[in-house]
Amino acid sequence: MINIALPTAAGCAAAVGALLIPALIRSGVHPAMAGSAIFLGTWGSALSPGLMFNPQVAQLAGEDVMTVIASFSMQAIIGIVVAAILLNIVAIVKKEHTGYVLKEANEEEGKEFKVNYLYAIIPIIPLVLLVLGSKQVAVIPEISVPVSMLIGTAIGIIAVRPNVTDAVKKFFRGTGDGMCDVVGLIAAAACFTAGMQYIGLTSALIDGMKNSQQIAQIGAAFGPFLLAVISGSGNAAALAFNGAVTPHAADFGYGIMQLGSMAQLGAGIGRSMSPVAGAGIIIAGLAGINPMEMAKRNAVPCIIATVVIMLLLL
């Protein structure tokens, strides 16, 4: 739901993950499962008028954006519910839904704990600012993810009043770790995507789907899905498909809205199980796990959710 108001997956992952991942882990959920749950929800942007593919499909179909979104919104909601249920089943089978205890939690066991509601509210402030400043809500001027996080950090320092020197050192140490562990991997994934395009793999996959009318249904769903899994970019996969294949939807016996919407949904879901997706790398950093751990847990929910949406939409 937050990803609808904040369409960027990486921004949503940073804002929501920073709040919910520690909360899930503290409640006993395994870190890998906590990260997988957040990562699985980062294709909610498919229902956002601010996502560039909805206006793209609307222009191709000669319809308005909200008509396009309304044409697949119910299928998308059913898909995410199916995915969430399946991820819960995976968590229960792997016994990762409860019982996880942090080492520091063990050390603090038995100590009296009193909730400081002011401190509890502070981590939510960046998320509230992002939602209120989004184009869909627009209650306040638009605020970027870094600015909102800086505001939250400043408020936290004022409220907690730590040693300023130590707080600043920890802040920049965290920034450096983020550059090392997150930005470097995102750059590597971008290079991989460019390499796919350079050797012609992306265009070959698209042409193969375009010339095979018999597998148009499966191709519309799993073509962008597979491209997104491999490249880590749902945008690149959906943009390539909608640019090359969707205008010829009538040749496959489908409407442009159907085919274009399925392509961007498939790409978004595929990116939610990619080990090289920027959003996944951010979440993995927050949870202290390897991105591949989330990809393995999200594989079955994502694949089945794509099949369900494909059968309902096409």
3D structure, described in words:
This protein has 314 residues and is mostly helical. Helix content is 72%, strand content 0%. It contains 16 helices and no strands. Helix 5 packs across helix 16 (291-313), helix 8 packs antiparallel against helix 9 and helix 14 (256-271) runs antiparallel to helix 16 (291-313). It starts with a helix and ends with a helix. The mean pLDDT is 84.
Describe the protein's topology.
Elements: H1 2-5, H2 9-26, H3 31-40, H4 53-61, H5 65-93, H6 103-108, H7 117-121, H8 125-132, H9 145-160, H10 164-198, H11 201-210, H12 216-231, H13 234-244, H14 256-271, H15 278-287, H16 291-313
Helix pairs in contact: 2-3, 2-15, 3-5, 3-15, 3-16, 4-5, 4-14, 5-14, 5-16, 8-9, 10-15, 11-12, 11-13, 12-13, 12-14, 13-14, 14-16
| Average pLDDT over all residues | 84
Radius of gyration: 21 Å
- Counting DSSP E segments of at least 2 residues, the number of strands comes to 0
- Dominant shape: globular
How much strand content do the residues show?
under 5%
Q: Percent of residues in helical segments?
A: over 70%
Low-confidence stretches are none
Class from helix and strand fractions? mainly alpha
Q: How many individual helices?
A: 16
